[in-house]
Amino acid sequence: MKTSAAVIEAVGEPWKIVELDLQRPGEGEVLIEFVAAGLCHSDENLRAGKLGGTARYPMVGGHEGAGIVREVGRGVRGIREGDHVVCVFRPACGRCEYCASGKGYICNESADSLSGSLPGGHFRFSRNNEYYGANCMLGTFSRFSVVSEVSCLVVEKDIPLASLAVLGCAVPTGWGAAVNAAETKPGDVVVVIGAGGVGLNACQGARHAGAAEIIAIDPVASKLEAAELFGATSGFASVDEATDHIKNLRQGGADTVILSAGIPGLAEAGLGILRKGGNLVIAALGHPSNFRLDMPIAPLVLQNQSIRGSVIGSSNVRSDLYRLVDLYRSGDLMLDELVSRHYSLTDINVGFEDLQSGRNLRGVVIH
Ligand SMILES: [Zn+2]
Ligand SMILES: [Zn+2]
Predict the structure, then answer these.
(1) Three-class DSSP category at 24
(2) E strands within 40-93?
(3) Do domains 2-168+335-366 and 171-311 have the same CATH topology?
(4) Distance between Cα 28 and ligand 1 center (Å)
(5) What's the gap in Å between 3 CA and the centre of ligand 2?
(6) Is the pLDDT of residue 110 over 90?
(7) Ligand nearest to the CA of 284
(8) Residue 45 alpha carbon to ligand 1 centre in Å
(9) Tell me, what's the pLDDT at 288?
């Protein structure tokens, strides 16, 4: 069949809308008709070649989305034609040693997701006899895509798919960074650096976990306003501006700093506002050439502090995502408030410009 998709054919080029051939689903795969796809900084990084040369091109973009199952390949269990699904950028096969030990966020099936191939090395998109990859095994910027069953979570049909699309990356990444990775406790002081799609959900997760102080840091004033809606108790334009406030708290520093922006210098700045025994949780990628740590180790040891990387919010998506859907249904989790604008696929470059300029919390493409 044919599908139209936003693709990157070479590093640095803008998103291009092309018509691709799409094979039918093989064993363990399903054909999805995507209804909505979120625009995430990681796709911009893919376009701009900021992922350290690990990605293969040409690639269909998009690694969060929600849609409807149109065809089911051989051997797929628990997913039927017509089901509504959320597709997540980190699959969870449920069978590897990580999934089996409750660490689905580092499932073995996700080891090579930037190659654009599905498990088993298959490519399902092609054009003029050339295979096109699918970002993180999804390619949600294509109206139709063939994905692995391990990337899909079946959800109830009464919730609009356009609302659920952001559950594929932004929401679990931020919410889980606060709840799972930071293990936020009632009364904690949590600082969230970067108030975009991930950071706002870190604020929301910290609020759910009972944090007493949630301090958002972002240079964009409208994002700090949004952070307040998502649970922040105060906001500052920079770590420097926030430092006095944080050091004057009874605790003298943050229990947790969650870093959601991969900007050089921010990890060191985050460590500087931790209390003794505090935790720096890094949920941003950044460019490998400049988003690095170079600092003396001894203070970290003497103050018993830790630095932790967290992917998809260290979430076990097969349980945590259903919890998030339930929280949305009960009115306790904000999803719609995260989405600033909807775009058509042909306006995808505008959507990414709006993301880059800080106009959007999250933009969503409606296919
Ligand atoms: Zn993402
Ligand atoms: Zn697994």
Answers:
(1) coil
(2) 59-60, 65-72, 84-87
(3) no
(4) 24
(5) 30
(6) no
(7) 1
(8) 10
(9) 85
Ligand 2 centre from 312 Cα, in Å?
14
Taking the centre of ligand 1 as the mean of its atom positions, its distance from the CA of residue 190, in whole angstroms, is 22
The tokens 């880059």 sit on which residue? 356
DSSP helix, strand, coil percent of the chain (3-state; round to 5): 30, 30, 40
Residue pLDDT, tens place only, 192-231: 999 999 999 999 999 999 999 999 999 999 999 999 999 9
Tell me how far CA of residue 217 lies from CA of 243, 266, 295, 305, in angstroms: 11, 11, 22, 21
Ligand 2 center from residue 189 Cα (angstroms)? 33
Q: How far is the CA of 356 from the centre of ligand 1 (A)?
A: 14
Compute φ and ψ for 291, nearest 5 degrees: -90, 85
If one looks up domain 171-311 in CATH, what number appears?
A: 3.40.50.720
Q: Where are the domains of the chain?
A: 2-168+335-366, 171-311
Does the pLDDT of residue 49 top 90, yes or no? no
Which is nearest to 226 in space by CA: 253, 192, 258? Answer: 192
2-168+335-366 architecture in CATH?
Alpha-Beta Complex (3.90)
Measured in Å, residue 197 CA sits from the centre of ligand 1 at 9
Q: For position 96, what pLDDT does the model report?
A: 93
Residue 111: band (very low, low, confident or very high) from pLDDT cuts 50, 70, 90: low
**Cβ neighbours around 27 below 10 Å, total:** 12
Ligand nearest to the CA of 136: 1
Residue 57 is given by DSSP the state S
- The bound ligand whose nearest atom lies closest to the alpha carbon of 318 is 2
Ligand nearest to the CA of 109: 2
pLDDT of residue 304: 97
